[in-house]
Write a structure and sequence with these properties.
Blueprint: E1 5-8, H1 12-24, E2 28-34, H2 41-45, E3 48-53, H3 64-73, E4 78-80, H4 90-98, E5 102-103, H5 108-115, H6 117-126, E6 134-135, H7 142-152, E7 156-160, E8 169-172, H8 178-193, E9 198-202, E10 208-216, E11 222-234, E12 237-243, H9 250-266, E13 271-279, E14 285-291, H10 298-305, H11 309-317, E15 334-341, E16 343-344, E17 350-351, E18 354-355, E19 358-360, E20 367-371, E21 378-379, E22 386-394, H12 397-410, E23 412-414, H13 420-427, H14 430-433, H15 441-445, H16 457-478, E24 497-503, E25 506-515, E26 518-523, E27 526-536, E28 539-544, E29 547-556, E30 559-564, E31 567-574, E32 588-590, E33 595-600, E34 607-608, E35 613-619, E36 622-627, E37 632-637, E38 644-645, E39 650-656
Organism: Aliishimia ponticola
Keywords: ATP-binding, Biotin, Ligase, Nucleotide-binding, Transit peptide
Protein name: ATP-grasp domain-containing protein
């Protein structure tokens, strides 16, 4: 059965990636979009596009009925769910089939069996797949779960039974943490998956997160395409993925691959799927879960196998046999992927929103960038914070890693905060460079959180020169009836200027003086000469104290953004009447982004200590705790539970304790 047309029930980079493969097969492609994504790249890339509803996912991408109706209206033959949203919704898969459409994924029964962690674990134990000791029973009371956790022995992992992706998951080390951890995990699980059911698992120390990509057809053939190491995680969400696993041996791959295929056969699987394991430092491995969809990190498998996983999905969904056997699968070289997020690593990785002023993905040998964004696009608070994936392939692991560092540094995004500097720093960390990363790497490497290096005086001077030259050029542009050769001429030199710049949350006074060939900039104790400055086509070039510098740039009135290596920094010229956010300690606790207030933990008159949780804010599918910056007393509460708040709104006011 040939599939002639495909509706992609997703957005962003995965929608664009699926469209490209479908188009290469000669298929007509249909995109769907919310109001927030009306002008998104995936909408423009598809042959047709259908509006689903308003921005929130619950009103658009999660409306299975609207997606199926869009497929009917456009005469689509099949629906590809991508990942996230409806991709692991068994009811949606059933409804697609009932509508006479082909669902690009496994049967609804397989999704349902693996969608509940408790049921999946029972099935895997029956199939002889090694599982982590834990509890997946019917007693879901807080006290019952706490008692089971004590019997298992701490540390223990609390997990949402109905979902994954790090939501509804808590690691507990101490008995007194159990009540609040269970409550938070249950609340997050209910909001993310509509079910508060939890399971418990013994926490495996110094473990690696290793997953096997499997592919199965409707004729009973099941193969695996090797493994991926996804050990580097933050809040149980993957940050770096690579293939193959650095510590994998042929014997271990054979045993884990067999277990993965057994897991797939146990639920009569068909299509692409991933069986996830924890691999202990003693070589023992344990089933975690099965993701019944395409994974975010599938490109690393594609690069080491030379296979197109979406093409294979479409092939088996059409009823054909898998075109390859296990003996045909060969792993060549090494591939590593990082996820570019709109987030602030220095501020507890809070998601960022705003307009993309410039997006310029890296290019080069062995580099691949999967994206679904464009310059000028608004990044809303409604969806996951991932913007793009940067992937590198090389003949050796170290070649792939060094290429990826270059790819991260060369992918430039201005306009909102991203994790670029964090990714480059992490890729250069000795533990990761040596292939020894486990799930505890980020806690060990950044115990106090990630701190970005301070901008150097030379680069701050370059930014000041860009602003000064831009201001001068704007002034020249307003000059009327003056010959071009006379612009800038004066019988006396331009008077020096003293500006206040704001960068990295700090104010810096600079002294700027025009020179015959450039600008003399005084930054703190440093005197910097910037000569031959040229800014054109989002790039600036200058000789800074005798050294030629060239870097990406974006200029706006009174602000310049520069990319230096992996650092992205904004420099604002502070003018009278412009509010500075550099000062801290005002006692006003503000929303760092638009979000939904899940919980208000204090009331007026209450005494709080530094670090106490004041507000729990949900944004971009995660819950964030806003804490007291000092010991004090709550003087006012301006937020209410379940209320939507805009970025910058004052939620709580504190007065310092005498």
């Amino acid at each position: 059965m040939a599939l002639s047309s495909l509706l992609i029930a997703n957005r962003g980079e995965i929608a664009c990636r699926i469209i490209r493969t479908a188009r290469a097969r000669g298929m007509r492609t249909i995109a769907v979009y919310s109001d927030a994504d009306r002008d998104a790249p995936h909408v423009r890339l598809a042959d047709e596009a259908v509006r689903l509803g308003p921005g929130p996912a619950t009103d658009s991408y999660l409306r299975g009925d609207a997606v199926i109706e869009a497929a009917r209206r456009t005469r689509a033959a099949a629906i590809h769910p991508g990942y996230g949203f409806l991709s692991e919704n068994a009811d949606f898969a059933r409804d697609v089939a009932a509508a006479g459409l082909v669902f690009i994924g496994p049967p609804a029964e397989a999704i349902r069996a693996m969608g509940n962690k408790a049921e999946a674990k029972r099935l895997m134990m029956a199939a002889g797949v090694p599982c982590i000791p834990g509890y997946e029973g019917a007693d879901q009371s807080d006290t019952g779960l706490a008692e089971q956790a004590k019997q298992i022995g701490l540390p223990v992992m609390i997990k949402a039974a109905a979902g994954g992706g790090g939501r509804g998951m808590r690691l507990v080390h101490r008995t007194e943490e159990l009540p609040s951890a269970i409550a938070r995990a249950r609340s997050e699980a209910e909001n993310a998956f509509g079910s508060g059911e939890l399971i418990l698992e013994k926490a495996i120390a110094s473990a690696r997160h290793v997953e096997f990509q499997i592919m199965a057809d409707a004729h009973g053939q099941v193969i695996h395409l090797g493994e991926r190491d996804c050990s580097v995680q933050r809040r149980h969400q993957k940050v770096i993925e690579e293939a193959p696993c650095p510590v994998m041996t042929p014997d271990l791959r054979a045993r884990m691959g067999t277990a993965a295929m057994d897991a797939a056969r146990a639920v009569a699987y068909c299509g692409a799927g991933t069986v996830e394991f924890l691999l202990g430092d003693d070589g023992a491995f344990y089933f975690l879960e099965m993701n019944t969809r395409l994974q975010v990190e599938h490109p690393v498998t594609e690069l080491v196998t030379g296979l197109d996983l979406v093409d294979l999905q479409l092939t088996v969904a059409s009823g054909a046999h898998l075109p390859i056997s296990q003996e045909d699968v060969a792993l060549t070289g090494h591939a590593i992927e990082v996820r570019l997020y709109a987030e602030d690593p220095q501020n507890d990785y809070l998601p960022a929103t705003g307009k993309i002023d410039l997006w310029r993905p890296a290019q080069g040998d062995g580099l691949r960038v999967d994206d679904g964004i464009a310059s000028g696009q608004e990044i809303s608070p409604f969806y996951d914070a991932m913007l793009a994936k940067i992937i590198a392939h090389g003949s050796t692991r170290d070649m792939a890693r060094t290429r990826l560092i270059h790819g991260v540094e060369s992918s430039v995004l201005f306009g909102l905060q991203t994790n670029t500097a964090f990714l480059a720093d992490l890729l250069a960390h000795p533990v990761l460079a040596e292939g020894k990363a486990t799930t505890g790497l980020l806690d060990d490497a950044y115990p106090a959180g990630f701190k970005e290096p301070k901008v150097s005086a030379a680069h701050l001077a370059l930014a000041a020169a860009c602003l000064a030259q831009d201001a001068r050029d704007r002034s020249f542009a307003r000059a009327g009836y003056v010959a071009a050769e006379q612009l800038g001429w004066a019988s006396a030199p331009m008077p020096p200027a003293r500006w206040t710049l704001i960068c990295q949350g700090m104010e810096q006074d600079v002294h700027i003086e025009a020179m015959p060939q450039g600008w003399a900039i005084q930054v703190a104790a440093a005197s910097v000469l910037v000569e031959g400055l040229c800014c054109h086509d989002n790039s600036c070039s200058a000789v800074v104290d005798g050294i030629r510098m060239t870097c990406p740039v974006h200029l706006a009135r009174n602000m310049v953004s520069l990319a230096v290596g992996a650092q992205r920094f904004d420099v604002l010229r502070h003018r009278a009447g412009t509010q500075s956010n550099a000062a801290a300690g005002s006692g006003q606790i503000m929303a760092p982004m638009p979000g939904l207030v899940q919980d208000v933990c204090v009331q007026p008159g209450q005494a709080v200590a530094q670090g106490d949780t004041l507000i729990v804010l949900e944004a971009m599918k995660m819950q964030h705790q806003l804490t007291a910056p000092f010991d004090g007393t709550v003087t006012a509460v301006h937020a209410a539970a379940q209320s939507q708040v805009p970025s910058g709104s004052v939620l709580v006011e504190l007065s310092a304790r005498d």
